[in-house]
Amino acid sequence: MSRIAQRNLSKSNAQFQRAVKRLPLGVSSTFRYWGDDRTIYVHHGKGGRTWDIDGNCYVDYRLGYGPAILGYADERVDAAARKGMEVGGVFALSTEKELAVADRIASMVPAAELVRFSNSGTEAVMAALRLARAHTGRESYLLVEGGYHGLFDAAMWMSNMDEWDLGSNTDPELVPYGKGIPQTVKKLAHITPMNDFQRLEDIFSKHGDKLAAMLIEPIQGNCCSIMAQPEYVKLARELCTKYGVMLIIDEVKSGFRVGKGGIQGIMGVTPDITTFAKAVANGYPISVVAGREEVMRTFRYGGASHGGTYTAHSVSLAAAEETLRILDETPALETLAAYGERLKAGISKILDARKIVHSYTGHPSMFGLFFAETPPDNYRDWKTSDYSFYDRMAYHLHDLGVICEPDSREPWFMCEAHGLDETCLSDTLKAVETAVDLTLEHFEEDAKRA
Ligand code: PMP
């Protein structure tokens, strides 16, 4: 590894040493901790790039896990947000802009007949599940393996794929994401592998009349962008209708990114309830729970509770209005998807030249890169790919000025600014070529030692 100079992270490392005395792991979200000597602290972001406090510049494909759909510090959105500041923040009262933004959402997403705002993805999905429970009078719910729906207890259950034996006939164990999640919640949660049509039918015939909701990310934004087959989502729709279950399509990551009407628009499936967050306001905190009028009217006195001190904050609303206008009225989404296609083609050229088998999942605006011949169809298949190659490559990419998630289960996110700055592509591909060679060297050295 010696032929590449490591980044200078001395300021970030010093900051970490100070921060860890006051902030657990030195950060405000556990996933931002990348090791005592590799946790970076941001100075600022602009367009498709981020600069750390040591002055290292990165082409950024995490984009805060998706929000910066146009790019960091977008001048159009920030100007609108500044105007929103003059309004005064929050009042525990409503403003006219709520309707303007809700109208825009309804015109872009047919399922969004009625709209409520929240602050984060977690809050929106939590509200969606509560709404489903209130509307159906049922409590249990169905999750899909590889999906992620936020930090509230009901959503914090996953199939333990790390411990699962690929060759076994058993299902992976349903486990909580870490400690502090009450076991009692587990009784209400069911989980099924994506794209397994028979299992879905079986689970509905066994439990359908007790389910309040089925939650699905048809493009798994937290699991390599693995995609549901449209027919699978259509089957989910049919079964939900048959058994009186609310279909919740969680588009916190895919919404206003893969298309104006989200993945539900592309697949032609109408959920009862849907959620959006990340791309809605280019990074300003706002989220959306929306859906069928009859269901949404359950938000009322004596019905399902919904609210929050900071909902529909004037800054976030103003930013949302401008971001959605841009996404709706300009070719921004085409620009960033075309960039994603060019990036994939460039990466493939590098990998093909080295005969490295690979494939992609998802949508060009948020794609997963796999070291396997065919992309996974569900989370269990991810085990068949060489994710250790990915993880090593990601490590080198950070040193070489490209930020992607260190874990292969997080897709790469594109923004409009990537597509408008030619150097993003050339800088990225130069780094990918070197990172791939370093990774190959690393595995060759390991093989020799073995
Ligand atoms: N749903 C999905 C599909 C998500 O990707 C996320 C966050 N990654 C959430 C819900 C939770 O959103 P937040 O982090 O804003 O609470």
From TrEMBL:
Pfam families the record matches: Aminotran_3
Species annotation: Albidovulum sediminis
Protein name: Aminotransferase class III-fold pyridoxal phosphate-dependent enzyme
MF annotations from Gene Ontology: transaminase activity
Family: Belongs to the class-III pyridoxal-phosphate-dependent aminotransferase family.
Keywords, alphabetical: Aminotransferase, Pyridoxal phosphate, Transferase
Superkingdom of origin: Bacteria
Entry cofactors: pyridoxal 5'-phosphate
